[in-house]
Amino acid sequence: MDTVLQNLGSIPCPHGDRCTASGCLFQHSWNKKPAAPASAKHDGLDEDDNPRKRRKLSTEPTQSTVSTTAEPSKPNLEPVTAKKPVSPPPLGRKPTVLSVQSVPSAAPSTPATKPATTPSQTDPTPVKSAEKRVPIRKVQAPRKVETLNPRMLKGVAPATFEFRFKALTMLHEQFVRLNKEMEKAAGKDAESKKLVLTPQELIWLSLDLEEKIAMDKPSIYNNVIKNRIMGYKKMTPKQWKAERLAEIKKEEERKAAATQAGSKKQALLGPPKEINTGLTPQEEIAFLPHLLTSITELAQHGYVPKPPSEEEIKKAREGVEAAMGWETCDRCTKRFQVFPGRREEDGALTTGGPCTYHWGRLLYPERDPTSTVQQERTYRCCKQLAGDSTGCTSCSTHVFTVKSPARLATIVPFMETPENPSVPKDRAVCFDCEMCYTVNGLELIRLTAVNWPDGKELLDILVRPMGEILDLNSRFSGVWPEDLINAEPWKPVAPLDPVTNTDSSPSKLPPSTNPPAKPGQRKKMQIVSSLTVARDLLFSLISPTTPLIGHGLENDLNTMRICHPTLIDTVLLFPHKKPLPYRNGLKMLMEWKLNKAIQVEPDADSADGTAQGGKLLGHDSAEDARAAGDLVRYEIQRRWARMKREGWTLKKGVFVPPKEKKGATAGSAGKKLTVEGIEGTMGATATEVRKTRDGTEEGELVEV
Q1: DSSP labels for 272-289?
Q2: Among 95-109, 304-318, 372-386, which is the least confidently predicted range?
Q3: 114-128, 190-204, 346-360: which range is least confident on average?
Q4: Which stretches does UniProt call biased (Pro residues) (predicted)?
Q5: Is the Cβ–Cβ distance between 63 and 46 less than 8 Å?
Q6: Total Cβ atoms within 10 A of residue 391
Q7: What is the pLDDT of residues 151-170, one digit of tens each?
Q8: Helix %, strand %, coil % for the chain, to 5?
């Protein structure tokens, strides 16, 4: 058996230098034995003998003398096994030496090792550049050839295989007929001949249309596919040509939008969807009571409907003193100790050393119905498998988060929104907060408020934290050290406090606190001294009846220590398919509902990767606030269309419900819509809209 394995070493490997097998028995360029001259042959050893066995006998005096006299240089006295690679090159990389040069017959015998490499060969830079010149992964493979057979769907099929196959065949027959008639009518017209499809393209067109109908409208699949077949059966070649031209124009518009898009993500999403509610801005604000979300029963999910009591705050303060600064890291879950005001011995803020973690969440791979292999979860940040490493990012200190409202109140007490008669009644405000890690947990670092629905900036300031900063969390907060260094002290602008406007028209809104940034430059911010100052500035813009719009408002309100009764939270407006605490992210909702890409980083998603010098920017609170406002307008558009079908009318800015039908129970029929009436019913259910592939929506009621 050993002889057979030895003979494999003289046979070239079928995979050549791309072999990635560990300890491959075949011959490769890096372990190929050069031809030895007759004068350098060893006594008693055959040329086909295993080189490893000869090396084991190299300690004999006679063998050592022969090998050393044949080569005058001393470096050859080293054991040959020290240079022989134990395993092939790493996976996915080409070996450093791509070929073996022939050795002249007059040359002395050399060890059977990887050939000597020149400095240019040992330098990894040329190899890396060679790989870039041949981007194998970026080459788009041709579309797979398919037959006229229904594709496998994810989930339950809307009909039997026999029905789907018959419908697909009939659809394909109509496509073939229309294609032949158009080709015949084209004659010598070169432009018309370009619209003629090949047999494989006709199969792809049939499969795509049948799959789209089966995925988007499974409940009415039979009726839809029958109507499509009858429609194509009655279609003339002229109409077929017009449809093909419309499809080509649509594809060209998509490509044009992709080239103009600021990111690869936006290019994939296509052009953003336009929002047209059919209402004026004042009417949209009057519609907001329909969307109010009650938080009275959501205290267990982080919402604070009323400030903590003095007894709760006292117990929380006693717990903090008993803990002696010991916390659990919010990133790596390790225990460490915090020293507010710094430790006297060495001035340290925390213990535990540096923190290594994954900043991205675990991604659950999409389940493939055709595969029985369980796929591994990977981290969004580095694409590593769960459990492969402790982290891909390092920070100098550990950080923590405080969730308890009572403990938050020990630092800054909660306040209910005070009455403010100077605030116009027809105002709605979108706001968003960015936080950083300090010795007190997460603290406010940036506050942004914009007017709704026009998105005009009302307030955008930086806030100086109360505790010592551990980590600015710039990847998500978008606030960098230079922003704090270059920030100017906040200066009041009139008329901001008090607000004397009687309406929220753009011409009468308070001016922005910051001048607009020049192209290619970061916005120069203004900074206030504390959280309480920032909170007072926000209170100057709102009243208890002013709708506050945002995404995940419990985090922003708790950070600012505010209890506000009139909220529209897009987390509750577009609930997750699972109950709380599961929620849909703002970035995903914008892509899902409006085909808009937000929170795009130039180093990863930019079309050219040069925006802001390719530097990581982080989130923009102004962008997030406007995105939440756009989602609210989208929901108004969808819900108002449904209400009009149910019989609702708009009379002098008031939404009037339909009249009571005969046999209906007496109750609220004929009553006009009021904020008080809506607040009692909005907490029961919320509407989740599922977007289909052709742009239509299906609504279902989901319990909140």
Answers
A1: PPP---SS-HHHHHHHGG
A2: 95-109
A3: 114-128
A4: 508-518
A5: no
A6: 17
A7: 988 778 899 999 999 999 99
A8: 35, 15, 50
